[in-house]
Design goal:
The complex is a heterodimer. By secondary structure, chain A is an all-alpha fold. Chain A has one helix and no strands. The N and C termini of chain A lie far apart (about 30 Å). Classes of the chains: A mainly alpha, B alpha+beta.
Chain lengths: ~20, ~190
């Protein structure tokens, strides 16, 4: 199947999302 | 019909479920028993909830480790997923604990949970940060020390990500070589 890949920038943005 | 947990509808799922481990030597316990599972997670949100909650690696006592491995793989050479593998090793000097250790460790975790190694991600077992008096170490563990192509792709990706901070050298060692020797005599299969 498709691999779920996340970019570094996206992961960092998610750090402090509520 | 398959039901989906409500959490998973709003959170961002990861490709793999990961387990965070903590190691602290205690005299009355075996080395293996000193490895304690902290928590497992399989979403971006749960990763950050855990990461933001724990002490950064730089604040751990000397002799302690954090490890993050795919669920079902223990952070030790003897595990069947690790025993034929090896690790990319990043050695840090004493000054780098305060300046770079936490950044390096976080970057390695982001590479793993984000599946940044693409098709080579399946070769990644996990990563370990050792906090030690003589110099801290970060290791990225892979499953098979004979898969040169995957090993090099994984190493190069780590190196390019860590360049954000400073020049670092990465060395790849087979666990079998590290088990047989001590200290600086371990032969490196690759250096980049």
């Amino acid at each position: 199947g498709t691999r779920i890949i996340y970019e570094r920038t996206f992961l960092l943005q998610m750090r402090n999302s509520p | 019909q398959k039901t989906v947990a409500p959490d998973m509808l709003i959170k961002h799922p990861l490709q793999n479920t990961w387990t965070l481990w903590f190691f602290k030597i205690e005299s009355n316990r075996s080395w293996e028993d000193c490895q304690v599972e902290i928590a497992s997670f399989n979403t971006v949100e749960d990763f950050w909830a855990l990461y933001n909650h724990i002490e950064p690696a730089s604040r751990l006592k000397v002799g302690c480790d954090y490890s993050m491995f795919k669920q079902g793989i223990k952070p030790m050479w003897e595990d069947e997923h690790n025993c034929r593998g090896g690790r990319w090793l990043i050695n840090l000097n004493k000054q780098q604990r305060s300046t770079e250790l936490d950044n390096f460790w976080m970057e390695v975790l982001l590479l793993m949970i984000g599946e940044s190694f693409e098709e080579h991600s399946d070769e990644v077992c996990g990563a370990v940060v050792n906090v030690r008096g003589k110099g801290d170490k970060i290791g990225v563990w892979t499953a098979d020390a004979k898969k040169n192509d995957s090993i090099l792709k994984i190493g190069e990706k780590c190196k390019s990500q860590l360049k954000v901070y400073n020049h670092v050298a990465l060395h790849y060692q087979a666990h079998s070589a590290a088990q047989q020797k001590t200290g600086s005599a371990i032969r490196c299969l690759f250096t980049i």
